[in-house]
Amino acid sequence: MPLPAEYWESVLKAPRADESGAQKRQRRLSEIQRHVLRVSCRRCERTVEIQKADAVRLYGDNALWKDVAQRLLDNTCQQRNRQA
Fold it and tell me: What is the DSSP letter of 39?
C-alpha cells in the first residue's frame, strides 16, 4: 500500500530534508538528534557506531560530527593503520 501524498509532503518540508551530506557533517554533536552515530570507511569498508552520549563524553557537546567521525575512523581503519 503506497503512502499518502500528505506523508511525503510533510517529509520533504521537514527541517533538514534538503540538508546535504556536507551540511550534516558540519553539525555539532549537540545539534544531532540521533542516539547512535554511524560512520563508514571508504578504505576498509568498516562501519563504526558510537552512542551520542559516549561521543559527547569523549569529544564534547560542541565537537563537529566530521571531526568525531574522522577520529573514529583513524582509530579503527585497518588500511589507515597499515600506512602509519
Answer: E
Element of type H or E holding 55: helix 52-59
Contact 69, 29 (CB under 8 A): no
**Gap between the Cα atoms of 84 and 74, Å rounded:** 10
Q: 51-81 pLDDT, tens per residue? A: 999 999 999 999 999 999 989 888 776 665 5
Q: How far apart are CA 39 and CA 14, in angstroms?
A: 23
As given in the structure block, the three cell numbers for residue 4 are 499518502
Residue located via cell numbers 506523508: 7
This model's pTM is above 0.85: no
